[in-house]
Write a structure and sequence with these properties.
- The protein has eight helices and ten strands.
- The protein has two domains: about 130 residues, 2-Layer Sandwich (Ribosomal Protein S5, domain 2); about 110 residues, Alpha-Beta Plaits (2-Layer Sandwich), CATH 3.30.70.
- Helix 1 crosses helix 2, helix 1 packs across helix 3 and helix 3 packs antiparallel against helix 4.
- The chain is an alpha+beta fold.
Length: about 260
């Protein structure tokens, strides 16, 4: 079972505080979990083991991932959801996302919100608004680029535990996400870029990401992009406002209406 990475376009991290986030899957990067005849989890992994324990699945599994670690691309939740699906959990996408969130937050003590798991469970771009999730589809083609820096990786849980939450800024971020979702559905790359930039700058003002992350974002800005952080530091995402063929990037995500 394969589950892709995700990139938040706007609003993050307000979903941790009842806000709203617009996010998309990154299908070029994924975690894969398969059942095995031999018992046990290979290689050992707390996330996989916790997911199996929660649903009382006595199966052997093997897992692998191409999602870079600790750069904000939702590699942890991808493993949990892939494990639940491989174990045969019969649940709708919202229920599956909520189950994965509960495993990470309640069983493992990970600071997390719904949007990572919702994007991966719905296998679609989504607007997560409080406890509600709406799958989105643009009416015109959109393309995105994703970039990350191993030197900008970090523990997202530690970041969230140490920030002094500005609830006014979280409310502002949620409003930006809702506007960004409308631009996304229209296929309006220019307006979406403006809102992604506003989201990134609002977050940096209220809950700054580490300097290494901002160096990555600034490099993208110098190249003409208006990026947002995909998660809580280490990776960025930007909508392509010109022709994707002109972009020298390894990962170009195509979203067609």
């Amino acid at each position: 079972m394969k589950v892709s990475a995700r990139a938040a376009l706007a609003g993050n991290p307000s979903d941790l505080y009842g806000g709203a986030v617009l996010a998309i899957p990154v299908p070029q990067l994924a975690a894969t979990v398969t059942l095995a005849e031999q018992p046990g989890v290979v290689p050992p992994n707390d996330l996989v083991e916790a997911a199996l324990a929660r649903v009382a699945a006595r199966v052997g599994v093997r897992w692998s991932t191409t999602i870079p670690r600790s750069v904000g691309l939702a590699g942890s939740s991808a493993l949990v959801i892939a494990t639940l699906r491989a174990a045969g959990v019969d649940a709708g996408p919202l229920e599956l996302a909520q189950l994965a969130l509960s495993i990470e937050r309640d069983d493992l003590g990970i600071v997390a919100g719904l949007q990572d798991r919702a994007t991966q469970a719905f296998v679609a771009p989504v607007l997560v608004d409080g406890d509600a999730v709406r799958a989105l589809r643009p009416t015109r083609p959109l393309s995105f680029v994703v970039a990350w820096s191993p030197s900008a990786d970090g523990d997202s849980g530690e970041y969230h535990r140490n920030i002094d939450v500005d609830h006014g800024a979280m409310h502002e971020l949620a409003g930006i996400a809702r506007e960004a979702a409308e631009a996304f559905e229209r296929g309006d790359a220019g307006q979406l870029a403006v809102l992604m930039d506003a989201s990134a700058r609002t977050r940096q003002r209220a809950a700054p990401l580490p300097p290494a992350h901002e160096e990555l974002a600034d490099a993208a800005r110098r190249a003409g992009f208006r990026p947002n952080s995909t998660g809580s530091g280490g990776a960025i995402v930007a909508v392509v406002e010109g022709e994707p063929a002109q972009i020298g990037a390894d990962y170009v995500i195509e979203m067609f209406g």
